[in-house]
Amino acid sequence: ATILAIESSCDETSAAVCRNGEIVSNIIATQAVHQQYGGVVPELASRAHMQNILPVVQQALQAAQCELQTVDAIAYTQAPGLIGALLVGSGFAKSLALALDKPLIAVHHMQAHVLANLIGERRPAFPFLCLTVSGGHTQIVRCDSPLQMTVIGETLDDAAGEAFDKSAKLIGLPYPGGPLIDKYAQQGKPIYKFAEPQIQGLDFSFSGLKTSILYFLQKAQKENPEFVQQELANICASVQHSIIQILIKKLMKAAKETGIKEICVAGGVSANSGLRKALQATGERFHWNTYMPAFEYCTDNAGMIAIAAYYKYLDGQFSSLDASPSARASW
Ligand code: ATP
Ligand code: MG
Ligand code: FE
């Protein structure tokens, strides 16, 4: 089966083509317009999706050498995300499905992040655990099949990506700061310590860390106004280390409690080099089989929507033309 998938939940306009479970093209247009505002502006995201969606879909089809008429189903991100952004992708997908008389498949964005681990040669066996760390979510998901997933832990406040981005803002780095913290951290050492959250069970909290970093920087800059410039690499390494420790600790707890040793990561923060190293090291220590998506399938992309849609297609799970997207989503 050939599936054309569209992702438009936030600030990436993306289209991908999947043939029999293999991703043959994955085009991603990242919207630069938000950088000057220090965060995603929903109205501007919708407008940029409108401008990008046709060329992005055309490029995805072309890169896959795929004629639109040969597509067997059209998939789109239904939820969660920015409603105006989701409406652009869903409206486009529905129009195509109607015009081509092909079935429509609605995909849950967070489930798709998890299933990005099923793209490529090396795939986890079921059941597996996935630590999904993105801009809006931080979850530990138990995945029993491509169609059956349960959230067993999640953040009570900020997401891990938010923790990276908000810390970066405090340090004075531009948005989105996560990748920049990653870059500078590689030249530094985690010599500064911040408050650790005390949360029971498998849930996460990052708001205390953010406050701790704020107070630390205020105090240090009072004593030495040049502190951030002089110590940038060590500060970034310390922030990154703290976030990773919080994540890995809960992942270890989840693995122990479930007895599952197939362990994956997903979402934008899974592109972080420190987290990838920590996952590998922890995996070796506890004899886990660890998996991480290739970089292009970590942050938002239509490839992951296409792979999620492929399993729904095999199971005959189609969406009606009058289904509407929603900002929030249930599992
Ligand atoms: P959600 O999926 O929860 O709706 P989102 O789709 O906006 O949110 P993603 O695109 O998956 O989130 O990830 C974006 C986040 O990933 C941002 O917070 C960004 O800073 C972070 N990120 C990307 N690369 C890195 C990196 N190398 N190190 C740390 N954080 C990173
Ligand atoms: Mg994004
Ligand atoms: Fe996402």
Characterise this structure:
The chain has 331 residues and is an alpha/beta fold. The protein is built from 9 helices and 10 strands. The strands form 2 sheets. A 5-stranded mixed sheet has the order 3-2-1-4-5, with helices on both faces. A 5-stranded mixed sheet has the order 8-7-6-9-10, with helices on both faces. Strand 9, helix 8 and strand 10 (289-291) form a beta-alpha-beta unit. It is globular. The model has no long low-confidence stretch (mean pLDDT 97). Helix 1 (42-63) runs parallel beside helix 2 and helix 5 crosses helix 7. Helices cover 43% and strands 19% of the residues.
Main β-sheet, in a few words? Answer: 5 strands, mixed
Instruction: Work out the radius of gyration.
Output: 20 Å
Class based on secondary structure composition and strand pairing: alpha/beta
Distinct ligands = adenosine-5'-triphosphate, magnesium ion, fe (iii) ion
* Uncertain runs: none
Whole-number mean pLDDT: 97
Helix fraction bin: 40-55%
Query: Topology as H/E string?
Result: EEEHEHEHEEEHHHHEHEH
- The overall strand count is 10
Shape verdict: globular
Question: What percent strand?
Answer: 15-25%
Organism: Phnomibacter ginsenosidimutans
Main location: cytoplasm
Enzyme class: transferase
Catalytic activity: L-threonylcarbamoyladenylate + adenosine(37) in tRNA = N(6)-L-threonylcarbamoyladenosine(37) in tRNA + AMP + H(+)
